[in-house]
């Protein structure tokens, strides 16, 4: 691969792997791809975001394993771009750099009390139950009777469902042991999910909504009055039969059910926005306002009516969307929280590209990133063929640089050792894996194959 184009892909989630795969498929030019990640483990949100009880969705990592097996692919974990190596250093080492770092922060609500203990971004809760090594010290206090989840997207649904799973349902997943223990032992009786707009505008998708109605330990409650739609929402159902129409049909079926008296209740509320999170030293309640829907600039938006309500609760999860964060030395759009780009070519930086959530914002399902990454790679390859990717060669390789800097990087074999150890730990328990969740443990397991090599 010595004459191949050399490309660094920064971020090993779905967008990174789809980009790597599209690059490795190229015959003119041929491409060698190094995928870098801040964590010792690959797969990004497939490992650390997708809910543990969605093993079928996590199975997409098998396709990424096939990409990793292709000639020309290398993985460098435990390498943080912007800290361990800089963007400029990468440009010295590679013909092109593709950023696929996702959206690593969360949007805020901007209401009083948002930072009270007991009020968490959903992103932190998700990272905690999924075993992200940076989130294991967090102490989720699940000792309350009611939790409120703010937002009407699929992440909100994941949080609601995870809080509602029984010990038996959790037992066959790779949820971390502390999360299984905390959720199973929790005295939670009610999980309220609040959406600021109506059922026809909800961002969640029908299969995820349907699942809420199939849980062993939770009844799902919907007030039929919330499903009386205004004419604009009725019209929206006709235009969006795949999502809005199916969501409303499922909600109507839920509304017609009599509760079975299961240990937990999931209450789906619509047309309410948080005004404040209340409490002295920690969350005690949330104040919400009733909304009405109005059309504004061709969009249906929520407008507060002035009618307020206080919902007592001890836990608030704010699930109102992820947000991209800037990387040192790489252009950033501070309003859209993405890297400014034209179809994947970064604006204002040569030989630099982006794909996935950091390119288009946090939307779509995992597969959406395939088309997105392919578009970016097509432009990168076109630029290479047009002779626009001239690297100022310094003869160094990334390994040389990392060794010079004394960085302990994790290669793909190191990850395979972690993967094998986790699966072996899960097997006797009937679980897909027991995740290693401490940085030092992950590095130590990866090191075991390095010292054997
Ligand atoms: P999302 O789909 O964009 O949903 C965000 C939700 O937050 C929307 O309901 C939005 O309401 C609401 N919101 C925003 N600002 C708010 C505010 N100030 N007050 C109250 N509500 C507010 O984002 P997400 O749930 O984080 O998901 C991110 C992406 O990952 C989505 O594409 C999602 O489908 C995907 N995902 C998929 C799965 C799956 O396939 N199983 C699982 C998890 C995530 P408005 O609509 O009114 O703005």
Helix segment count? 17
- The figure for the number of domains is 2
Distance between the termini: 23 Å
CATH topology of the largest domain: FAD/NAD(P)-binding domain
What sort of overall outline do the alpha carbons produce when their principal axes are compared?
globular
The counted number of beta strands is 18
- Report the C-alpha radius of gyration, rounded: 23 Å
The profile of the biggest β sheet is:
6 strands, parallel
Descriptive notes:
The chain is α/β, with parallel strands linked by helices. The protein has two domains: 5-104 and 323-409, 3-Layer(aba) Sandwich (Rossmann fold); 108-320, FAD/NAD(P)-binding domain. It contains 17 helices and 18 strands. It has helices at 14-24, 45-48, 55-58, 61-68, 87-93, 122-129, 154-164, 167-171, 177-185, 206-212, 231-239, 241-255, 357-360, 368-385, 398-405, 412-426, 439-452, and strands at 5-10, 31-36, 73-76, 96-99, 105-106, 119-121, 146-150, 190-194, 218-222, 264-269, 272-278, 285-296, 299-312, 315-318, 322-323, 341-342, 345-346, 352-354. The chain has a six-stranded parallel sheet. Helix 1 links the parallel strand 1 (5-10) and strand 2 (31-36). The longest helix has 18 residues, at 368-385. The model has no long low-confidence stretch (mean pLDDT 96). It binds NADP nicotinamide-adenine-dinucleotide phosphate. NADP nicotinamide-adenine-dinucleotide phosphate (NAP) binds at residues 109, 150-156, 158, 195-197, 201, 203, 208, 273, 319-322, 362-365.
